[in-house]
Amino acid sequence: MATHEVVDPADPPASAPEPPLEPAAPAGKPELEPTPPRRLLLLLLLANSAMMAVYMGVGSVLLPTHIAAIAPGDKVAVLGLIGGVSALFATAFNPIAGALSDRSGRRNPWVLGGALASLAGLALLGSVTTALLVGIAWCLVQATMNVYQAAVTAIVPDRIPAARRGTASALVGLGLPIGGTVGVLLASQTAEHLRTGYLLFGAVVAVAALLLTGFCRDLPRPDPATTDTPSQPASLRAQLASFLSSLAHHDFRWAFIGRALMVLGYFSVVGYQLYILDDHIALPDGLTPPAAMAVLTPVSMTAMAVSTLLGGLLSDRWDRRKVFVGVSAALAGLVMVVPVISPTWGGMLLFSALNGLAFGCFMAVDTALVTLVLPRAEDAARDMGVLNIANAGPQIIAPFVASAVVTALGGYTPLFLVGGALSLIGALAILPIRGVR
Questions:
Q1: How far is CA 2 from CA 199, 215, 437, in A?
Q2: For the domain 38-218, what is the CATH code?
Q3: Domain boundaries, the chain
Q4: Which of 48, 144, 396, 433 is the most exposed place for a label (fewest CB within 10 A)?
Q5: What is this structure's pTM?
């Protein structure tokens, strides 16, 4: 490994030479860099944007279009089944890949390997013509993309000092609004040429991985195989207990619960937004629900980008995490009453803007908070993968929760209220965390 990176030409000259951006670490635990390198953060932003482009562009546009062409009469049921099963793959593979990445002591091979395998999976997805094969191929893409995601996510706690993780998480968190918006736009332009669209998204994530691994070399990490402690074969029960041991850590457990409740409340409502616009909201004459979504999505994503940056920067400046996470989760819960009180187009515009502000700030600062309550630095990727269960798990059950609420309680007003209550309880779950202010 080289002991330094080439200084970015955009960096201002200094009167004294600056320390290397990637100092050689002594044997044992690697030292963190003193400040977040500009190049590293830009590459992480690109890597996360590419990931979100795949999730949003393929998952919300190309895949539903593909299924509608194969099974037009059963497209809703088929898409729901494929989405649920593939989410199980995502939930399982993220922490498993994180644990393997920790054990190997390296991130780059997993980033690059996951991206190239995703390219192959997307190429396969573009060539199949039955619902069964579409489901298998999409499960493979979800699995390989989560190998990529687990390693990319672990780079922040690996490389960024604790005092700057709010800013770093905010910049990296811009991958959601940037990647999501670009992904949907690219997918809408290639929806009539599915094979080309799938290959394009595969190329996007592969190029992002090549840039990240080419310009951001791995820091040396302890190799468990070189320790003096002899390895003993562990039972499946012991391995599972070790894998989920982070949840026994008080602060990490409460952060996990808060994230899960917030995500469940958010996706229970957002996942049904098209139906809400069709059945619950009084739209202006001539405005169809799909056209309304095309307006609401940029509104929400722009608000999300603003609050992501501001929340991360201010949480670093004031050295406070819990207040930002708790207030943003509470705001997400409270704004759910807007479409209940005003089921109009104006009400939905206001709801989308406020909901984007709340969710963006929450995800940016909560990610920084979680990196500060990780039980063991050497298990960062594994534990961040466990946290991803709080992201993916609620997305699996959100459609079932939403369907049950709408059917049993009669309409979308109860759905907004249940979603708001879940977010408010998620805000309360932040209070018991003791190790972060």
A1: 34, 11, 37
A2: 1.20.1250.20
A3: 38-218, 243-428
A4: 396
A5: 0.66
